[in-house]
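Following up on my earlier thread - several people asked me to post the actual chain instead of describing it. Fair enough. Here it is, all 69 residues.
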Amino acid sequence: MKPNEDEIRGKIDKTAGAAKEKIGQLRGDVNLQEEGANQRDAGKVEEGFGKARRKVGEALRDLGKKINR
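Reply from S.P.:
Thanks for posting it. Predicted structure:
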């Protein structure tokens, strides 16, 4: 199965957060650095949730195929 919305949004947030964090480091902006770190971490959680949701969906689909045999 292809990635779901949660996985995609999580990857985007993770990437954007990492960029903000790096820019904050380069500019010496602690607030931007922390904001980026928080966004990156939230993206990791969202991506993980999306992966788990997809895996459950795949398992249910496979179970359905086995039952129908």
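The helical segments are 5-27, 30-67. That should answer part of your original question.
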